[in-house]
Write a structure and sequence with these properties.
This protein has about 230 residues and is mostly beta strands. It is built from no helices and 16 strands. It is about 0% helix and about 50% strand. The strands form three sheets. An eight-stranded antiparallel beta barrel has the order 9-10-11-12-13-14-15-16.
């Protein structure tokens, strides 16, 4: 039995034309799996890690990637060792049977080129600065967290100061993307903070640090610091 006065569903609601949109995401080294839970993949045009994943958003299509001298045909492609301080075009061609009912002018073929830039793979980073902020849930109690590099006897090492108040912790940066880094304290100093720092994709001056401590009375408790570059 029909429904008098009922509105017929729109067959084109939610439909889209064939698109060659794709994401570019830095990939954490599998050797750092102890911190993999902290890494949140994000779309970017600037990278500093060695391995990068390119993923087409269109499902169940024919894919043609043009990356340097290579032509590839899978939905996701992982490549590494892009030239430093050079802009590299990444082109994707997608072919798929179009939805001719909703998009009669769609020929089912779309092409997109994005440009990838690789920064110098050193520790000269947008993270190294002072950030003033607070712990999530307690915005009135503000303090400053410092992220720095130090050179000692010719060796370079790194620290975060004040995640534990008035304490400077040397760190291993085990995953270091352009806007995200994973860190693990070297020793019991500062109760060995471990976690992730991330620069906002919308504002290079905003940072969020999510971390736990490996020792002390706050062991395994999760903290989130939100700060702004000073």
């Amino acid at each position: 039995m029909g429904c008098h006065g009922c509105k017929e569903p729109d067959p084109c609601e939610g439909a889209t034309e064939v698109t060659a949109d794709f994401t570019i995401m830095e990939v954490i080294n599998p050797a750092f799996s102890n911190l993999e839970e902290y890494f949140v993949p994000f779309d970017t045009d600037t990278i500093r890690m060695l391995r990068v994943a390119f993923t087409a958003l269109e499902e169940d299509a024919k894919y043609t990637w043009k990356i340097g001298s290579e032509t590839l045909h899978t939905q996701t492609v992982v490549r590494s060792h892009f030239p430093v301080h050079e802009v590299v075009p990444i082109t994707l061609i997608v072919e798929k049977e179009p939805n001719s009912l909703c998009f009669p002018d769609d020929d089912g073929i779309d092409t997109l080129t994005r440009f990838l830039y690789t920064v110098k793979p050193s520790y000269d980073s947008i993270f190294f600065d002072d950030f003033h902020g607070y712990l999530e849930g307690n915005p009135q109690d503000t303090f400053t967290v410092s992220i720095r590099e130090k050179i000692l006897l010719g060796d370079s090492f790194f620290y975060i100061k004040n995640l534990e108040r008035d304490c400077e912790s040397s760190l291993r940066f085990t995953g270091f993307a352009y806007r995200q880094m994973l860190f693990d304290g070297e020793s019991v100093s500062c109760n060995r903070p471990k976690g992730q720092a991330r620069i906002s994709t919308d504002n290079v001056n905003e940072i969020t640090i999510t971390y736990t401590f490996g020792y002390g009375e706050d062991k395994d408790k999760s903290f989130v610091f939100k700060g702004v570059r000073k």
